[in-house]
Design a protein that fits this description.
Helix content is 34%, strand content 26%. By secondary structure, the protein is α/β, with parallel strands linked by helices. The radius of gyration is 20 Å and the shape is globular.
């Protein structure tokens, strides 16, 4: 099966800090792929290099058969990206935001209208179509951000902590939507530090820490056939409270 995403030797420094240290990835087409790691592991930086938003200091990235660098604009035509905190034009309404995104992708006006109408309904934003995005909650912003990412029907969908700030009902709808996207031949790549979500949804997972790959493969192999969170903690190193620490908690008497 051809790869939807390839990364070879990705490196990114911020001053004296190496955020990503030679990451290699091969993500099969049509897969649901998880990028797991603790906070500060380099997940978001890796995604930004894969999606053409951040130029790597070394290495290469290919998405949907397109070399991201030096072709970030072409790569963005075959992928959709939703960051952890989507930055949108908050003085627009949701339909206006979708129309603007469709125009950027040079979509026919009738296709923009038809797809926008359906996306607003599926994402439970139809009743808020006349509100400015500035008045949206974070969960609503994430949902319209997903609509923007899906509007042009990309081959690869890249998401950073996609289920944060979503209520259980909308989280389930988004899961169903992503599974439908995948069943149609799309590839879903998402970063998360919530291991039960990764284990439930993903075929394969890579665990990174300090900008390096610690493990990669089918979820069942990386988890050792058990709980992925236990395997994750063992890989990245857990922390236990010392005996007697915070002993003052719950130490009051009636």
């Amino acid at each position: 099966m051809a790869d939807a995403v390839q990364a070879k030797g990705l490196v990114k420094d911020f001053g004296d800090v190496r955020a990503v240290d030679g990451i290699d990835l091969r993500i099969p087409r049509g897969s649901f792929y998880g990028i797991a790691g603790p906070n500060g592991a380099g997940k978001s930086t890796t995604l930004r290099m894969l999606t053409g938003l951040l130029r790597p200091d070394a290495g290469s990235a290919e998405v949907g058969g397109v070399q991201v660098w030096p072709n970030p604009r072409l790569a963005k035509s075959v992928l959709g990206f939703v960051p952890d905190n989507p930055v949108l034009f908050d003085r627009l309404t949701a339909p206006e935001m979708l129309q603007y995104a469709g125009m950027l992708h040079r979509m026919p006006p009738e296709a923009i209208v038809a797809r926008s109408t359906e996306l607003l309904r599926v994402l439970d934003l139809e009743d808020s179509r006349n509100r400015l995005i500035a008045d949206f909650s974070l969960g609503m912003v994430k949902r319209i951000g997903l609509g923007v990412a899906l509007l042009h029907n990309p081959r690869v969908l890249v998401l950073d902590e996609p289920f944060g700030a979503l209520d259980p009902v909308n989280a389930q709808v988004i899961e169903d939507l992503l599974q439908r996207f995948r069943s149609g031949g799309g590839t879903v790549v998402f970063a998360s530090h919530v291991m039960d979500v990764v284990q439930r949804l993903c075929d394969r997972v890579v665990v990174i820490a300090s900008g390096r790959v610690l493990a990669e493969g089918p979820v069942s192999e990386v988890s050792g056939g058990g709980n992925l969170q236990d395997a994750f903690v063992q890989l990245v190193g857990g922390r236990d409270l010392e005996e007697g620490e915070l002993a003052w908690l719950s130490s009051w008497s009636d």
